[in-house]
């Protein structure tokens, strides 16, 4: 088994600072440093949340040293574990049945095979299971699928059926899909997801009705969309007045955190105006306690779109269509710096 990679605090800080700068997408940063984009996002969030702790590090370090000293004392007092737990320790990182079967010692002097299987969580039927080898004809078909996938990695099961049929191999889509899953092949295509549901402590009904909006400042609405770049995505949030359809503020980020949404809200409130109703979807950014409490502090009524109701926020969705078809898709930005050279100079503003 390959050892898990570890990174130094200096490396994490460097990557997190690069993510905070917003110059590159998370995918580009992850590719440059050979890490996963989720790690980059987590390190960025940790750096933002822990920035205020820099000024109290001395006290925390002292408390940490005392805690470590107590832990060392306790570890010295701990004796050897029982024989079964000692034997089980070597299998803690194994979860695949074929790996667990290798740990069973049929000649162990004290542990029976049944007891070993019980400790490993391995059914005895799995211990004695003998896998059936794949037929030669199936291996040849899998080789052809692999060759077609190398030529066209965007092909899914439907297109793969057509390729095989042209090669004289008629197959059903279900079998092709099963073989592709077995081989770990998946079609490459964009899969952005900006509305990740949160777990709020309280919920709010939808109060926004476009037909009932009669004055400016009555209802503000917000949403997040993605801006495709050559290597990944940037995420754009905007706050719109539903009566005038004026964009009050907007903000860009290379990660789907709550901070850039909060910054856009603060920019809108900085004008001194507050709406009667603030409408959004149920994404975790807008249902977070910090975002909700900020709206409540201004005595603003909170409105959330219902699940599966795409028309509740139709005017902001129409704004995204205009932004993408009349700006983003025409220019095809290569990175965040090129985007900033075309849009207003700052990373957020009151007009687009």
Describe the structure.
The protein is α/β, with parallel strands linked by helices. The protein has 4 domains: about 10-50; about 85-125, no CATH class; about 135-185; about 210-350, Nucleotidyltransferase, domain 5. Helix content is about 50%, strand content about 10%. The protein is built from 16 helices and 6 strands. The protein has helices spanning about 10-20, 25-35, 35-50, 55-75, 85-90, 95-105, 115-120, 125, 135-150, 155-165, 175-185, 260-270, 285, 290-295, 315-330, 335-340, and strands at about 220-230, 230-240, 245-255, 275-280, 300-305, 350. A 6-stranded mixed sheet has the order 5-4-1-2-3-6, sandwiched between helices. Helix 1 crosses helix 3 (about 35-50) and helix 2 (about 25-35) packs across helix 3. It is extended. The two termini are about 50 Å apart.
Task: Fill in the keyword field for this structure.
about 350 residues, alpha/beta, 4 domains, 6-stranded mixed beta sheet, 16 helices, 6 strands, extended
How many runs of DSSP E, i.e. beta strands? 6
Structural category is alpha/beta
The low-confidence runs, each spanning 5 or more residues with pLDDT under 50, are none
Q: What is the helix fraction of residues, given as a range?
A: 40-55%
Oligomer: single chain
Radius of gyration: 28 Å
CATH homologous superfamily designation of the largest domain: Ribonuclease H-like superfamily/Ribonuclease H
Whole-number tally of structural domains: 4
User: What CATH architecture of the largest domain would you give?
Assistant: 2-Layer Sandwich
CATH class of the largest domain reads Alpha Beta
**What does the overall shape look like?**
extended
Mean residue pLDDT: 81
Please describe the biggest sheet, giving its number of strands, its sense, and whether it closes into a barrel. Answer: 6 strands, mixed
The CA-CA distance between the termini, in Å, is 52 Å
Strand order of the largest sheet: 5-4-1-2-3-6
Instruction: From the 3D structure, determine the CATH topology of the largest domain.
Output: Nucleotidyltransferase, domain 5
Strand content: 5-15%
Q: H/E order of the elements?
A: HHHHHHHHHHHEEEHEHHEHHE
Count of discrete alpha- or pi-helical segments spanning 4 or more residues: 16
